[in-house]
């Protein structure tokens, strides 16, 4: 009888062990993921400024979102940013990775050099580029003056500001995607290239018919990470332009931040954030389907 009871106790412990092992992760996800999402959704139906008690207002926040021209302008600014940021990120990082994949001297030095901006604080990088973009004393305008080109208002011209920020953000994140592409390129079997050479394929044909199809998963990863990073644009416009000039660099995340911590519209800010998260998820799903179809 005692032996049977001991076996039952041991069996119960073995059954509980997996749940005990995953419990820290479940607690973390519940506290920092599930609860914030549910609370955010709860806030979308309320008006709250942190100080005063919450007040239920139904779907008024959603109606306000639909007619909020400034929010849709911020969405448009973010899409403009992405229209330059993603192609630049994809083409330049793949080009540099292709170069680094060759047998060149000091390859490790160049890899570390490209990756260095990624680990530097985004605030530091932004302040540095703010100085480079300076109208009177910025190094870029000084170099343009040397070759006889007039100064450009990189951050004060409404037509240039968002694209100037896109170039800076691309430079900062380039090293990460170079490393990702480099890893992808090194997984392509060398036998494929040798067989293609024997068939008379030139370097461009080998690139388009072997390299690109083989690194399709890496391309998808880079596009998705660039998209999510672009939709999360905040530090750059917040420090460099504060959303100006004329709200031309006001990103969606910066607008959500202002609604929450500048105007204290927590309920409306939660509504914007919830809608924006669904929008990003939809775009990523569409990208995945398109890239898989092309692949």
Structural write-up:
- The protein is mainly alpha-helical.
- The protein folds into two domains: 9-61, no CATH class; 69-122 and 158-294, MetI-like (MetI-like fold, Orthogonal Bundle), CATH 1.10.3720.10.
- Helix content is 75%, strand content 1%.
- The chain has 13 helices and two strands; from the N terminus they run αββαααααααααααα.
- The protein has helices at 2-43, 60-66, 69-100, 107-119, 122-132, 139-146, 161-186, 190-198, 203-214, 216-231, 235-240, 252-261, 266-294, and strands at 46-47, 55-56.
- The protein has a two-stranded antiparallel sheet with strand order 1-2.
- A hairpin with a 7-residue loop joins strand 1 and strand 2.
- Helix 12 (252-261) runs antiparallel to helix 13.
- The chain starts with a helix and ends with a helix.
- The model has no long low-confidence stretch (mean pLDDT 87).
Q: Which key features would you list for this structure?
A:
single chain; 295 residues; mainly alpha; MetI-like fold; 2 domains; two-stranded antiparallel sheet; 75% helix; 1% strand
Q: How does the SSE layout of this entry go?
A:
Blueprint: H1 2-43, E1 46-47, E2 55-56, H2 60-66, H3 69-100, H4 107-119, H5 122-132, H6 139-146, H7 161-186, H8 190-198, H9 203-214, H10 216-231, H11 235-240, H12 252-261, H13 266-294
Antiparallel strand pairs: 1-2
Helix pairs in contact: 1-13, 2-13, 3-7, 3-10, 3-12, 4-7, 7-10, 10-13, 12-13
Q: Can you describe this structure in just a few lines?
A:
The protein has helices at 2-43, 60-66, 69-100, 107-119, 122-132, 139-146, 161-186, 190-198, 203-214, 216-231, 235-240, 252-261, 266-294, and strands spanning 46-47, 55-56. By secondary structure, the protein is mainly α.
């Amino acid at each position: 009888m005692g032996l049977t009871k001991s076996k039952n106790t041991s069996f119960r412990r073995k059954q509980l062990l997996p749940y005990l092992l995953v419990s820290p992760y479940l607690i973390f996800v519940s506290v920092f993921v599930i609860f914030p999402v549910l609370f955010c959704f709860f806030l979308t139906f309320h008006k709250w400024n942190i100080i005063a008690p919450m007040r239920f207002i139904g779907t008024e926040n959603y109606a306000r979102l639909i007619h909020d021209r400034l929010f849709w302008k911020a969405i448009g600014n973010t899409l403009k940013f992405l229209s330059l940021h993603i192609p630049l990120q994809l083409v330049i990082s793949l080009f540099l990775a292709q170069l680094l994949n060759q047998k060149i001297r000091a390859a490790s030095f160049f890899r570390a050099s490209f990756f260095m901006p990624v680990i530097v604080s985004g605030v530091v990088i932004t302040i540095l580029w703010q100085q480079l973009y300076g109208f009177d004393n910025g190094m870029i305008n000084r170099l343009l003056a040397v070759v006889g080109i007039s100064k450009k208002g990189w951050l004060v011209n409404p037509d240039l500001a968002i694209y100037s920020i896109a170039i800076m953000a691309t430079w900062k994140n380039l090293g990460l995607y170079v490393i990702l592409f480099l890893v992808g390129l090194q997984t392509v079997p060398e036998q494929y290239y040798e067989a293609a050479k024997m068939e008379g394929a030139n370097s461009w044909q080998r690139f388009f018919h072997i390299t690109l199809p083989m690194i399709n998963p890496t391309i998808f990863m880079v596009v998705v990470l660039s998209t999510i990073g672009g939709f999360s644009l905040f530090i750059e416009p917040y420090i460099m332009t504060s959303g100006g000039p004329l709200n031309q660099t006001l990103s969606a995340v910066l607008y959500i931040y202002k609604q929450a911590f500048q105007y204290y519209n927590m309920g409306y800010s939660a509504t914007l954030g919830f809608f924006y998260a669904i929008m990003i998820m939809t775009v990523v799903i569409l990208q995945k389907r398109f890239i898989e179809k092309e692949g």
